[in-house]
UniProtKB/TrEMBL annotation:
CDD domains: M3A_TOP. GO terms for molecular function: metal ion binding; metalloendopeptidase activity. InterPro entries: MetalloPept_cat_dom_sf, Neurolysin/TOP_dom2, Neurolysin/TOP_N, Pept_M3A_M3B, Pept_M3A_M3B_dom. SUPFAM superfamilies: Metalloproteases ('zincins'), catalytic domain. Binds 1 zinc ion. This is Peptidase M3A/M3B catalytic domain-containing protein. It comes from Polarella glacialis (Dinoflagellate). Its cofactor is Zn(2+). It comes from the Eukaryota. Residues 271-727 form the Peptidase M3A/M3B catalytic domain. It holds the Pfam family Peptidase_M3. Keywords: Hydrolase, Metal-binding, Metalloprotease, Protease, Zinc. Belongs to the peptidase M3 family. The keyword Zinc applies.
């Protein structure tokens, strides 16, 4: 891979020229961030121009270490570099002599291999699959993600590396490791076990095939969701009850029809506000029928996971997953869910009957009652959000469309950032000139208020577009770690949401209160990523248990129901006034309306997840359909419409949340206890905020979460606060 440049024999050879000429036809081929030391200008791609923001000034604040790819070839080079560096890392460990084995030589290199999130090149290569407006780049980035997943699996399949880790584990140094370091050695040994190195060679090969096929099925599932271009057309009168600006923004001048996608900013307003039942039905059915090929992928994925778990000696995938969680086993989770359902069921049935009667009265007003009268009115899947919204408006004075006018997007963003800065002792500064993947993207640098030290960056990419990730999520692009020169690489996070964009005429986007809650929640995940401290948090070996990771953000949702917070998060689009006291009071009183009913839905989803990942998973799409048809009415109290299956778009079960969706409810019990114990008396207590930052966020996934919580709470967690907050006790 080396070669001399003509006329420059007296200079060191460029390490890339020969490869460039022989493999790339002489063209420039390597991004600067992926190039080895000494690469010449002919081999390097020119630096990408900054996509400038509010001004044309060069950036004056520190930037994340990213240059986003502009071509498939760049992504391919990044993948080649990461895979090669990872192999080299593993080879160095495998080549160690017995006398050279130590924590520093064996464990430390494997804690932050080049294919982990400590490497900026990994993020550059794969992140654009979720957000690039360029379909070819999304596809290339998705392939990169698959390649890195395979690379990470390969690391757990290296017998020679495993042998060195096992040999080190037998040394006196390993036996005397402090608890912190011993955690990582144990985690590595567990990784090798889960990679199949304790299996016979033929079983090991089978496991590798299963894991690779599952990764590919998950990638196809995500691509199908992101690439969906389905559209529904309605006459304006078919959207009666929806806001005029919602209709106007989606009006196609050529056809005179209102055109809707199946993404949440289009779907939710219809399901919540449209008075025309037939329209709601059309939208709901389209949403749950539009990805039929995904059901086959789910069926394939759960079978592959089941077979993988069995090979590794587990009864099921859910047994294998929960072994590493706070819960410890699926039986504990099932018992937890069943106890919650028993406590919530009476309220849920009363909520359902309340919604049904409200529907009957509404149909009577419209002259649409069935022949049998009110007793024959059924509550359908497309009715629940609408009649919940109607109930809030009629009996609690909660008019979500009126409330929207108090929540312009920019006010919510600025207010949220302000509250987090105050609570956690941080300072944010926006960077306007930086390399971005789309003009909507914003970038902020985060500093500790007391010391002034920079602790990281975060991106915000808030509006929907074709090909973009279609839910709300946080992506931890880069983790904190110490570099070879002793300096610290700082973490970088990114929020992707599908909040409504400003109108073409510049009118600010308006958010529903539940959108405000979503934004506040997701930003809590950013803070979790940026506030984590220490070298150990940079590695996948110190991830937070999946059934805890939602607790910090769920706890912070309480600020969206606090009068002081609502004043800071709101400003009427026309008058500039904050949300009036009576509206805020209505929101607070209505918080638990329908709570039993909607908790049963969460219990249904969590139970469905555990069931399909249990000891007897459905064998095919037909089996999945039969399971949903049976479980949905029994657990959620709502019939499943014929041919509908939300598993087709339930992305959680085709990523790291498989057999872990219960974690939302599990974590909410913890979150309610944290808020009630430390913040309810004073949500803006800086003392409590700093304790939360240092005792809950900073520790990341290192150590036992239960012990960190006990330190923060002053005792082990209890569920009483959760049951009271949900109106169950």
């Amino acid at each position: 891979m080396s070669g001399k440049r003509d006329g420059m024999d007296d200079l060191p050879a460029c390490p890339c020229c020969a490869e460039r000429v022989t493999r790339r036809g002489g063209v420039r081929f390597m991004p600067r961030t992926a190039a080895p030391m000494g690469a010449c200008g002919e081999c390097l791609l020119p630096p990408p121009p900054f996509q400038l923001g509010k001004d044309d000034a060069p950036p004056s604040l520190p930037l994340p270490p990213f240059e986003w790819p502009r071509s498939q070839a760049e992504i391919e080079v990044l993948v080649e570099r990461v895979v090669a560096d990872c192999k080299a890392c593993l080879d160095r460990v495998a080549a160690l002599a017995d006398s050279e084995l130590s924590f520093a030589s064996v464990v430390a290199p494997l804690m932050a291999q080049p294919n982990y999130k400590t490497n900026p090149l990994v993020c550059q290569a794969k992140h654009l699959q979720h957000c690039s407006p360029n379909g070819a780049l999304r596809e290339a980035a998705a392939k990169a993600s698959t390649a890195f997943a395979a690379c990470k699996k390969q690391a757990t399949l290296r017998e020679d590396v495993c042998a060195k880790v096992r040999a080190f584990a037998e040394t006196a140094e390993a036996q005397a490791l402090p608890e912190y370091e011993a955690h990582f050695l144990k985690s590595l040994l567990d990784d090798f076990h889960r990679g199949g190195l304790t299996l016979a060679p033929e079983d090991r090969a089978q496991l590798r095939r299963l894991l690779d096929e599952d990764s590919e099925a998950c990638s196809k599932f995500k691509r199908n969701l992101g690439e969906d271009a389905s559209r529904l057309s309605f006459a304006a009168e078919e959207l009666e009850g929806c806001e005029p600006d919602f209709i106007q923004q989606r009006l196609d001048a050529a056809s005179g029809k209102v055109v809707l996608s199946l993404k949440y900013p289009d779907v939710l307003p219809v399901l919540q506000s449209c008075s025309v039942g037939a329209t709601r039905r059309t939208v709901a059915l389209a949403r749950d029928r539009c990805f039929p090929e995904n059901l086959e992928l789910v069926a394939k994925g759960i079978q592959l996971r089941f077979e993988s778990a069995k090979l590794l000696g587990h009864k099921s995938w859910s047994d294998m997953v929960t072994e590493r969680r706070m819960s410890g086993c699926p039986e504990t989770v099932i018992s937890f869910l069943e106890e919650l359902r028993k406590k919530a069921l009476a309220g849920a049935e009363a909520d359902k009957e309340r919604f049904r009667r409200l529907k009957a009265a509404h149909l009577a007003e419209r002259g649409e009652l069935p022949e049998g009268g009110p007793v024959d009115v059924r509550l359908e899947a497309w009715d629940t959000s609408f009649y919940h919204t109607r109930l809030l408006k009629q009996e609690y004075g909660v008019d979500h469309e009126a409330i929207r006018k108090y929540f312009p997007l920019h006010v919510v963003v600025d207010g949220t950032l302000g509250i987090y800065q105050e609570l956690l002792g941080l300072k944010f500064a926006e960077i306007t000139s930086f390399d971005r993947w789309h003009e909507d993207v914003r970038l902020f640098v985060v500093n500790d208020e007391a010391s002034g030290d920079c602790i990281g960056h975060f991106y915000l990419d808030l509006h929907p577009r074709d090909g973009k990730y279609n839910h709300a999520a946080i992506f931890h692009l880069l983790k904190r770690c110490q570099k070879e020169d002793g300096t610290w690489q700082l973490p970088v996070d990114c929020m992707l949401t599908n909040l409504p964009p400003p109108s073409p005429d510049g009118t600010p986007a308006l958010l529903r209160h539940d959108d405000v809650v979503t934004f506040f929640h997701e930003f809590g995940h950013i803070m979790h990523g940026l506030c984590a401290e220490g070298q150990g948090n940079s590695t996948h070996l110190a991830k937070c248990p999946r059934d805890f990771v939602e607790a910090p953000s769920q706890m912070l949702e309480n600020w969206c129901f606090h009068r002081g917070s609502l004043q800071r998060l709101s400003k009427h689009i026309e008058t500039g006034e904050a949300l009036p006291a009576e509206m805020a009071e209505s929101l607070l009183k209505a918080r638990n309306v329908g709570e039993g009913f909607f908790m049963c839905r969460q219990i249904y989803l969590a139970t469905l997840d555990l069931t399909i990942h249990g000891k007897d998973p459905p064998k095919d799409a037909a089996g999945l359909q039969a399971l949903v048809d049976e479980m949905r009415p029994r657990l959620s109290l709502v019939d499943n419409p014929p041919g509908c299956n939300m598993l087709q778009s339930f992305g959680h079960l085709m990523n790291q949340y498989s057999a872990a969706y219960y974690g939302y409810l599990w974590a909410e019990v913890i979150s309610a206890d944290m808020f009630a114990s430390r913040f309810q008396a004073d949500p803006f207590s800086k003392e409590a905020g700093m304790a939360y930052r240092k005792q809950v966020l900073a520790v990341g996934g290192v150590g036992k979460i239960s012990e960190h919580l006990a330190k923060f709470l002053g005792r082990p967690p209890k569920e009483d606060a959760f049951l009271k907050a949900r109106g169950i006790l």
